[in-house]
User: What shape does this take?
Amino acid sequence: MIFEINALTILVMAALGAVSAYLANQNIAVFNDGMRPMYPQYLNKVMDRKTLFATSFALSFGLVIGFGLPTSIAGKIIIVHTILLATDIIGALFNDDEKGKWLSTAVGALFGIVLLFGMQGIMDAFAILPVNFLGSLSLVGSLIIISFSVFPAIAIAYQAGVTKGAIVLVLTMIVKQLTVLFGKFTINGVSVALNADGMALLFSIIAMVVVAASIKRDATGSSAAFAVFTKNIDRIKKNVLTLSLAGGIVALATTLLLIAEGPGSLALTAEGQYFEAAIVALGRTIGFIPLVMTTAIISGVYSPAGTKMIHVPAILFINMGIMGMVGSFVVGALIMVAEVFLLGFIAMGMDKFPGMKDLGDNTRTAMSKVLDLVLLVGGMLAANQIAPTIGYIWVIGFYFLNQTSKKPLPTMAIGPIGAISLGLIVNVLHLIGLFPIA
Amino acid sequence: MIRIVVGGQMDKQLLARIIENIGKDKVQVSIKSDIEAALAVQMKTADYYFGACATGAGGALAIAIGLLGPQSCASISIPGKIMSETEIRKAVQDGKVAFGFVNNDAEKVIPMIMDEIFKK
Assistant: This one.
């Protein structure tokens, strides 16, 4: 893994597991957006704790095993879902009484530590296999780095038609090409090189926001619908201190390279491209603001990572030493406070600018479509490097078999799982003499 | 004429296209934000709500569950699990009016839901 295991990282992972399990147990915040609307049923005693736990387990367990773990192993940073979806489940497992509160907090802390050592343990175990495929796994995320600036053009196409999408796509390519050719210059003897992928991303995201803001649409009347939920907003505000603590810890864990907010920024962070990673995280935040905030308002339950905005400065604070860590924690906590107090305001604002809410939906669709494809192709490239004879066959076959399955894994996970499983398969083949090492 | 709103948060255009292809002139489909769509069902200006997202429960159905109540909503698929055909048909017959699923499962589940809606 990219992170180091030392007293500080062990402590931060324990704190992250503890605080998020505590928040889930006390019905204050859960990470799974689909779990939030279940909590009012529980709080109004329509649903009992057992059913709440069963629902949380059903919604999140598959994502932890099928998406979180393989993505983390392939990318060498823990994707945040792996810990925060697990602590959703841990929190719901125990009763929300005094005993359950501290039990779930303790189990959450333990889970954080076990995950930290477990991930490194898996890496170490893979490293001693006769056919070492760890180096090839970085290919899984390699396309994200050079092609992720494509997603805003697709979001624009969803929202404003193919023509506008195509124009932005071409402009994005031109911006990247021009930056590669002319982005190196010298100011006062200091040579400056602009990063082409970063510039292309920045351009396309700005284009996306401009197009979305220019779309006129009638107001939705949802502020009237939301007015009945003011007591939910008050419930979240009451817990602002604990939430800000969670925000600070999530930010600090991001800065320490322990966790990453999504597959895009994970791959970029792992390559040391922090500026690009921060832009990608910002783009994802735009996509998640409406989802997280609306589900929070209808349920009175927030997210331990908020709208994911806390990750943006946290990524920029990487490698800035002790001041970076302190800065990350403080800024993360402050952003969480700001989000909580802006909840009602932003919900009403979405009513005035419906284009911005559509932008969120379209951004999430576009990003996940692009990630589905590039992680699949990345998985194929990695598999081909591990075993040129059977690599492509395995991943392509796995993709289509999964599509026909009654229990399909998320498409995004096929690339990572395909590459990792092929690595294990060739080791078995090697043991029985069918995969000689050249 | 059955009035269907596509809310949810992902792949709305795809959902609307699949529903229109199946329902032809028997359905009237409109794409809305999840809040508008759930409100439309609440105000009875629409009969059914369809929504998709990456997890089948968050963006797809969360607002509908909040506004219409869980007794009116069915999570048809989540990552790693799709309801069986029997369960899907039973959900429609039991009076569920809002359906959420994983966007990649849309082509598998929408035909069954629509078929059962037409039987009602």
User: Anything to note?
Assistant: Chain B touches chain A at residues 9-13, 33-36, 39, 53-63, 65-67, 70, 75, 78-82, 84, 102-105 (CB under 8 Å).
